[in-house]
Predict the structure.
Amino acid sequence: MKPLIGITSSIDVDEQSSTVGTDNIKAITRAGGLPIILPNFLQEEDIDQVADTIDGFYATGGYDIDPTLFGEEPHPNLGLITPERDRFEVALIKKLLEQNKPILAVCRGCQIVNIAAGGTMYQDIYAQMDQELLQHQQKAPKGHGSHYVQVETNSLLYDIIESRKLKVNSRHHQANREVPSTFKISGKANDGVIEAIESSKHTFVLGLQWHPENMAATGDITSLRIYQSFIRACQK
């Protein structure tokens, strides 16, 4: 039996629809998982049932995150937020962390996992970080690796990719700021932006600031290995 992977959906406010990029679905499928797209439930009993049913959770990218979730009010550069999705993902992630179920989270997903676990984030890195930054909203094609990440050797991410340096794509203006005590930073860009976090308490909880699904779609083997490692963790 293939592991059942719950995938969060992005809310399209204008069209009143829930969407998931096909590269996300293809990445999970190619790695051996059975993807199930999740709407944004709000009833606690529904969230409990989802948490009990899925073998693993894949948190995808999307719009900005409500800053009141981490004790701040909106910065002028905060973009569109979808509070319904925020509430659903935070509630589900907390349940899954309690159950020690595998989580892979990309871009916005990396941030919402951190917030659910008790961390904080930058609402806009260009306005809130003091140093000169790289281009984190690349103008290159989605699957093109545009900058490098330095990977910590004593980490899950290093065990997966077996390299201290990784070229990644980049489409974000928010990023994690502080991580909770049960998490650690396992990758940073050369400008200091946090690019990878992971739990030191759970079997497999990995957050990546980039979009490996787009790189996997171009045939990038390292990106595919990330998904394969996630699916293997979901089979245990």
